[in-house]
């Protein structure tokens, strides 16, 4: 039997080539970077403190606690429950802005791979999902391609009802309403009512200001 015919026993790794070693080190650094960007200590402390408060009676105080953590929270913003905020991208605390007088219910999930801007007097119902991160479409051998992120904006006065899904890059126009369970794949014009999957404009709403 020649040297080239010798097989390594199962469970015993062969000696790594220089290229494999460099590849492992590169992956390790990438994983370490993801871990570092996933650790949000002040956000975790804020949620810990807010869990001690009654959900509905402490909305304004909860907003102040999140502001202490580093998020932009306008005066009078009312957060009925702890927000589920997710991201492993840099700049976590700089990517969420909630305007004055906004009301956000419990069990709302917001992905902060890109900025999310919630305007003044916006209403967001329970179980709404707002996502900014996604992937490009890759080749047939691996359809999930390169990571990408696009901002989401919900303009002043809009109302997003229970269980709606808002995907990356969408703008919800001023004074519009997104129906319960709607999946919003494109921009919603101001002062319109949309529903369905995908969400479609059903009617225009009267404009008003008070």
SSE layout:
Layout: H1 18-38, H2 41-50, H3 59-69, E1 72-73, E2 78-79, E3 84-86, E4 96-98, E5 103-104, E6 109-111, E7 116-118, E8 123-124, E9 129-130, E10 133-137, E11 144-149, E12 152-154, E13 159-160, E14 165-166, E15 171-172, E16 177-178, E17 183-184, E18 192-195, E19 200-204
Parallel strand pairs: 1-4, 2-5, 3-6, 4-7, 5-8, 6-9, 7-12, 8-13, 9-14, 12-15, 13-16, 14-17, 16-18
Antiparallel strand pairs: 10-11, 18-19
Helix pairs in contact: 2-3
Please describe what this structure looks like.
The structure is a single chain. The protein has 210 residues and is an alpha/beta fold. It has one domain: 3 Solenoid (UDP N-Acetylglucosamine Acyltransferase, domain 1), CATH 2.160.10. It is built from three helices and 19 strands. The strands form four sheets. A seven-stranded mixed beta sheet has the order 2-5-8-13-16-18-19. It has a five-stranded parallel beta sheet with strand order 1-4-7-12-15. The protein has a five-stranded parallel beta sheet with strand order 3-6-9-14-17, with no helix packed on it. Helix 2 runs antiparallel to helix 3. The radius of gyration is 23 Å and the shape is flat. Residues 1-8 have low confidence and may be disordered.
């Amino acid at each position: 039997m020649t040297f080239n015919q010798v097989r390594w026993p199962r469970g015993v790794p062969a000696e790594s080539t220089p290229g494999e070693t460099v590849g492992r080190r590169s992956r390790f650094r990438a994983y370490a970077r993801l871990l570092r960007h996933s650790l949000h200590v002040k956000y975790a402390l804020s949620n810990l403190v807010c869990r001690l408060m009654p959900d509905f009676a402490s909305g304004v105080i909860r907003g102040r606690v999140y502001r202490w953590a580093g998020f932009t929270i306008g005066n009078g913003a009312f957060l009925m429950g702890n927000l589920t905020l997710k991201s492993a991208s840099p700049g976590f605390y700089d990517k969420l802005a909630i305007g004055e007088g906004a009301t956000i219910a419990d069990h709302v999930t917001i992905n902060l791979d890109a900025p999310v801007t919630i305007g003044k007097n916006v209403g967001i119902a329970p179980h709404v999902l707002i996502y900014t991160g996604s992937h490009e479409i890759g080749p047939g051998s691996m359809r999930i391609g390169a990571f990408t992120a696009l901002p989401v904006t919900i303009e002043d006065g809009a109302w997003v009802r229970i269980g709606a899904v808002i995907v990356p890059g969408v703008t919800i126009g001023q004074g519009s309403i997104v129906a319960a369970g709607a999946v919003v794949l494109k921009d919603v014009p101001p002062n319109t009512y949309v529903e369905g999957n995908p969400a479609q404009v059903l009617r225009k709403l009267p404009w008003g200001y008070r």
